[in-house]
Amino acid sequence: xxxxxxxxxxxxxxxxxxxxxxxxxxxxxxxxxxxxxxxxxxxxxxxxxxxxxxxxxxxxxxxxxxxxxxxxxxxxxxxxxxxxxxxxxxxxxxxxxxxxxxxxxxxxxxxxxxxxxxxxxxxxxxxxxxxxxxxxxxxxxxxxxxxxxxxxxxxxxxxxxxxxxxxxxxxxxxxxxxxxxxxxxxxxxxxxxxxxxxxxxxxxxxxxxxxxxxxxxxxxxxxxxxxxxxxxxxxxxxxxxxxxxxxxxxxxxxxxxxxxxxxxxxxxxxxxxxxxxxxxxxxxxxxxxxxxxxxxxxxxxxxxxxxxxxxxxxxxxxxxxxxxxxxxxxxxxxxxx
Length: 337
What we know:
By secondary structure, the protein is mainly α. Helix 5 packs parallel to helix 14, helix 7 crosses helix 8 and helix 9 runs antiparallel to helix 10. It has a domain of 188 residues: Orthogonal Bundle (MetI-like fold). It is globular and about 90 Å long.
């Protein structure tokens, strides 16, 4: 196992370089970089004060701006400079926000991290017992009705669901039960501990519903189908023939093997640190990682884009390795060599 993990770690190096290099080349090839955008603002400012005539920018100013933003070197040199800086955890400075990239990203962590953790916890807390129950009662009225509801939930786009929830429950046209925007109330700091917990929960309900509704169906059906396959196995029939109770057969003998496909996805829990949804954050006015990524791409804020790419790639690669380790822990028959 140690040799396998070491091999995976070594393989992660070219994978990481490939992810970051492709991203770096794409964003640098896109038109409208930070220099062009700043020049546009300067010309627009000049046009406003000179009777509609654009401001002429000297070559000295252009060269100075290129040096300031690091664009006075070829793209391959800039990529290696970025790698050198990133090895010291120096993400550079945001062109749009004029502050260190790590600060820009960390300011958005509370929103995305909160929704990522809550979504992960609630999804597995609800979907595993629901999927097991659907498998045990396969073909029953409960299985059919719950299946229709789950697939109905899965078919609703988050954008449509978010708009409907706001219109009906957040003061859009009907009821004003829930707030939108921010994660806490204005008087959050003066609340008691229980008051703070309730206030956060209250603000979470609508966006979290949009955030995790699709995952409910995927995980539940994965657990159900996996459990159905295990229930049909010979060893489960043998356990039942020995006179064991259904609860013992299902939850002690069958559940562990049924959880193997689910457990292999648990390595993705690291990605909750950068979980973000542009649509949900935009609709509910939440300043998270998803909205930051989108605005950074529009602003050609290269350092922020590469900072998010770096962290996402590291979490993805680490999560894949953790998934393999969990796979071995759940199923001892698996032996990576």
